[in-house]
Amino acid sequence: MSRLCILDGGMSRELLRLGAELKQPEWSALALVNSPDIVRKVHEEFIAAGSDVVTTNSYALVPFHIGEERFQKEGAALIALSGQLARKAADAVKDRNVLVAGSLPPIFGSYEPQNFDPLRVQDYLKVLVEQLSPFVDLWLGETLSLIAEGEAVRTAVAADRKPFWISFTLADDEAQVRGGEPKLRSGERVDDAANWAASSGAQALLFNCSKPEVMRAAVETACRAFKNRCSTVEIGVYANAFEGEQNDSGANEGLHTTRNDLNDDSYSRFACSWAEAGATIIGGCCGIGARHIHRLKQTLAG
Questions:
Q1: Annotation: binding site
Q2: For a surface tag, which of 70, 91, 240, 274 has the fewest beta carbons within 10 Å of its beta carbon?
Q3: Which residues fall in the annotated binding site for Zn(2+)?
């Protein structure tokens, strides 16, 4: 990658800001049912802010959020719609090339590594890949808590032959914020995840949906691992703005509050630190909006 690649930010809070109804457990999937035009508007605002990549609003289109019955009846159509909306927004841009990333979420719940079921995971990933494939330029397995989830994504997209990125969510409790060895939420070491990524065929290894304070150490660890292996895997970051501990409740049980101190200025300073450490793909996750992306785009360009 010849330059910094700017991702979009978090979908859900931007949907709320523009007037979409969101409630648990469906969360951002509900906007695809009730207000798809707002979903497209969010994509357009991130593109206007400077995003080079927009991500399909398919994160909550799994039984964990919409239920097994609804997934079987409506899941395929809603997944395809999420791809269509992102593709339409990207294709409307005439002065530069905006890519669409197909979001492949943790099938059995965010921050829930103990729920991973290797016997069932491909049943659901297969539907996501089949329905999104006509609309996306690359795959993004995101907010994955353990290496086995990354391997499941690698398996699911193998026949599609588009580039794939793997993004792990990091442990971000107080010990990690104070400088503990970077780990995934499963407890697996980032060093082990990076070595797996180097041999997986992934084009990029990213870290997302964790506090900004823990991201630089993960980037530095991955950089060392890739250097030792002479690997060309890119490194990326898109942090969240959540307040407090994130592992104390289910990801579809309520609305996490966001930090008042993490404005566009302070987030852009974190982004500069990640770029300095070796990240070449930077964006935002939950609570990071178009305003943040606009500012970090300006700052990183400078």
A1: 209, 285-286
A2: 91
A3: 209, 285-286
